[in-house]
Design brief:
Length: 475
């Protein structure tokens, strides 16, 4: 199919690269942070307006400990005020780790001859999904290496297989994808299989650094990668997820790169990314990483808080790459989704023995290997409301984070009730008795604190239906 790129704004053209390193460095080097400016910028964000790159640079350049506290407090307040206490849960599922690329930080790179290569057969995929359903998962992200065997048709067929698996009361209601970039026709094929979000991380927005870390294969083309989610949008996928792999280059540059990417989407497609991910580099089999840009815990928390304030209506994903303590801390600053019960070794969800982590079988090392039940238990202790909600996507309400943020009463009408109903299902079907007891108390507490104008009677009626065996009730 022929496509004629259009100009979206003076700076942005569809499917054309948009990162100007001089623009980013100029902002980092020449933007001053003052108490007054930081205060104004936080107020702007709390007033539900997203920040410009210059305003984000002010926050990035803030080094005064008192002002950094103010930024963190602003992010905490924004999360509380706008999104409330919900945390959405998902699990990654590795479908195939064959890879023709040579990303030097990744255990699956082609030059790692010790990597155990595997692609799940249909039967193995079904077994993995059944095991995930038995744990209570409802949302998955399927992950693939980049390889001719994992083309659009193949990805679409695995998505269809995942949706077809139903075990007991279990089913997967939203399948997201983290896979190689496709062309527009390829993205269309995958879209038609019914995916939620297509995630592709730029890894680093700094072109020179990108070249040094991507030593072969299709992924070594920086511009093709940078414009990949434009092609997804051209194909009609409007839920796209961006991300940077923190630790490859200066974190300040990457944060502004993510904001520039967001601006580009808004200029060209009138919608920002659905989610932002900020994975921090982890140990991988014989990985080669320049230690200069490692991000400390303190910097990591700061950058998450800055991102929250900069793009207040974008979902933010924190994964089990981080340990339980860091996750607990970082979650306060605006994270909306985490994975739970994560296993990266292929085929391991359905394996009966719990093997030690083996780096030659995994892409990288994870640091939070707790079960989904353990994670939910801790979320409940910390007064979060765990959610498996997939309602917006299934009701065709795309741009859900934007609606949560901008439509008055949206969270009260839809998100909180759906979080409660999906948690109720989990408690009935999968939770340990102790977690179930805690969970029902948290549900009661949330109902008691709900706005009296909300249809609490209808929510209670549906909870009763769930207790009597009905499933998949949502607003
Ligand atoms: N192969 C596809 C790709 O590269 O886009 C998709 C999946 S890749 C398996 C998912 C993501 O894992 C990568 O985009 C990268 O950000 C991240 N990753 C790779 N190596 C990592 C490491 N050592 N530590 C943390 N994250 C890593
Ligand atoms: Fe392959 Fe992705 Fe790993 Fe790069 S990050 S080597 S593309 S699996």
């Amino acid at each position: 199919m022929k496509f004629y790129p259009e100009i979206c704004s003076i700076k942005d053209q569809r499917m054309k690269p948009f990162i100007d390193p001089d623009e980013i460095w100029n902002l980092i080097n020449n933007t001053k942070s003052t108490a007054e400016r930081v205060g104004e910028i936080i107020s702007k964000s709390l007033g539900k307006q997203r920040l410009t790159m210059e305003e984000t640079a002010v926050l990035i350049n803030t080094s005064d400990p008192g002002l950094i506290e103010m930024i963190k407090e602003g992010a905490r307040e924004l999360k509380k005020r706008v999104y409330g206490n919900r945390i959405v849960l998902f699990a990654p599922l590795y479908v195939g780790n064959k890879c023709t690329n040579n990303c030097t930080y990744c255990g699956f790179r082609t030059s790692n001859k010790f990597a155990v290569r595997q692609t799940l057969s249909d039967a193995q995929l079904v077994k993995e999904v059944e095991a995930l359903e038995d744990n209570g998962q409802k949302r998955l992200i399927l992950v693939y290496g980049e390889h001719p065997a994992y083309d659009a048709e193949y990805i679409a067929s695995t998505v269809r297989t995942v949706y077809s698996v139903k075990k007991g009361n279990g089913e997967i209601r939203r399948v997201n994808i983290n896979a190689a970039p496709l062309d527009i026709d390829g993205f269309r094929i995958v879209k038609d299989s019914g995916i939620g979000t297509y995630q592709i991380f730029q890894e680093t927005y700094h072109k020179e650094t990108y070249k040094n870390y991507h030593l072969g294969g299709k992924k070594s083309d920086y511009d093709y990668r940078l414009t990949s989610l434009d092609r997804a949008q051209e194909a009609g996928i409007d839920d796209v997820g961006i991300g940077a792999l923190f630790g490859l280059y200066d974190w300040r540059f990457e944060v502004l790169g993510l904001i520039r990417h967001t601006n580009h989407f808004e200029a060209c497609y009138k919608v920002g990314p659905h989610t932002i991910s900020f994975p921090r580099i982890q140990d991988a089999a014989s990985a080669s990483i320049d230690p200069r840009y490692m991000v400390s815990h303190e910097e990591f928390i700061r950058l998450v808080a800055i991102l929250r304030l900069a793009v207040p209506y974008t979902g933010m994903i924190l994964t089990a790459r981080e340990n339980a303590m860091v996750r607990k801390e970082v979650m306060k600053f605006g994270v909306s989704q985490i994975d739970g019960g994560t296993k990266l070794e292929m085929g391991s969800y359905s394996a009966s023995i719990n093997e030690e982590q083996d780096l030659n079988k995994e892409q990288f090392k994870i640091n939070d290997s707790r079960s989904l039940n353990e994670i939910i238990d801790e979320l409940l202790d910390d007064e979060y409301l765990p959610s498996f909600c997939t309602a917006c996507y299934r009701k065709g309400r795309t741009g859900e984070h934007f609606m949560e943020f901008s439509v008055p009463g949206f969270i009260k009408r839809f998100c909180t009730p759906n979080a409660i109903l999906t948690l109720a299902e989990y408690l009935e079907d999968y939770a340990s008795p102790a977690t179930a007891e805690k969970g029902w108390k948290v549900i009661e507490k949330n109902l008691a604190e709900s706005d009296p104008r909300q249809n609490i009677r209808e929510i209670r009626r549906r909870i009763q239906c769930i207790r009597e065996g009905q499933r998949d009730l949502y607003f």
